[in-house]
Design a protein that fits this description.
- It comes from Blastococcus tunisiensis.
- This is Cys-tRNA(Pro)/Cys-tRNA(Cys) deacylase.
- Keywords: Lyase, Protein biosynthesis.
- Pfam families: tRNA_edit (PF04073).
- With about 220 residues, the chain is α+β, with helices and mostly antiparallel strands.
- The protein has a domain at about 85-215: YbaK/aminoacyl-tRNA synthetase-associated domain (YbaK protein).
- It is about 20% helix and about 25% strand.
- The two termini are about 15 Å apart.
- Residues about 1-5 and about 10-60 have low confidence and may be disordered.
Length: about 220
């Protein structure tokens, strides 16, 4: 199984024939929303100013998704990163987010849905790598894993391909997060729609998704 190439639906085309050439790197939207608490980037901590209310800072420019609502209800510190989701047809959704945000592809994680012994299972792996299906099966306590059909993934999670978040899914699915996430102060995952990433501490990601961690990326 390890020698076989696994299909990564995050590399699905953008839906625009031939894609679209980018005139600036990512054309990132200016809005970055800080919510609930401090965040860290490049080793620097950015606390919420003293006296600020411990509640979400909302903007009409970014509609709340089920994933964002989970974080708001929990009070977990997180940062929303909107960006232009348009990308060339040969570029995956995760790679597009990395390019648009100028982020580390090892710190941005894509959410994939597979079947382990027939059971839908969520795998969260870095954009810089790919999912090891054999390792996922072992981590989930199964024998065999294969990528789920896109329609099954969308129906179970309530999100569209390219915007599937591990948070706030329609059905609670078994989740495995690649253990490399624990090596960062914060990681990014989809916030529940194309063009929106959320940055949060990996411990909160694992806690809120009831995930286990294991080396499932290669």
């Amino acid at each position: 199984m390890r020698g076989a190439a696994s299909v990564d639906p995050s590399r699905a085309t953008s839906g625009r024939p031939g894609g679209r050439r980018r005139t600036t790197l990512g054309r990132v939207l200016d809005t970055v929303l800080l919510t609930a608490g401090a965040t860290e980037r490049d080793g620097r901590r950015f606390p919420v100013p003293a006296g600020s209310p411990r509640r979400s800072l909302r903007s009409c420019a970014v509609a709340a998704t089920p994933a964002v609502r989970v974080l708001e209800r929990d009070g977990a510190a997180h940062t929303l990163h909107p960006y232009d989701p348009e990308h060339p047809s040969d570029q995956g959704h995760g790679e597009a987010a990395v390019a648009a945000l100028g982020a580390d592809p090892h710190q941005v994680f894509k959410t994939l849905v597979a079947r382990v012994d027939g059971t839908l299972t969520v795998a969260v792996v870095p954009v810089a790598g790919s999912l090891d299906l054999k390792a996922l099966a072992a981590a989930a306590g199964g024998r065999k894993a294969a990528m789920a059909e896109p329609a099954d993934a969308e129906r179970a999670t309530g999100y569209v391909l390219g915007g599937i978040s591990p948070l706030g899914q329609k059905k609670s699915l078994p989740t495995v997060v690649d253990e490399s996430a624990l090596g960062f102060p914060t990681v990014m995952v989809s916030a529940g729609r194309r063009g929106l990433q959320v940055e949060l501490p990996p411990a909160d990601l694992v806690r809120l998704t009831k995930a286990r961690t294991a080396p499932i990326a290669r």
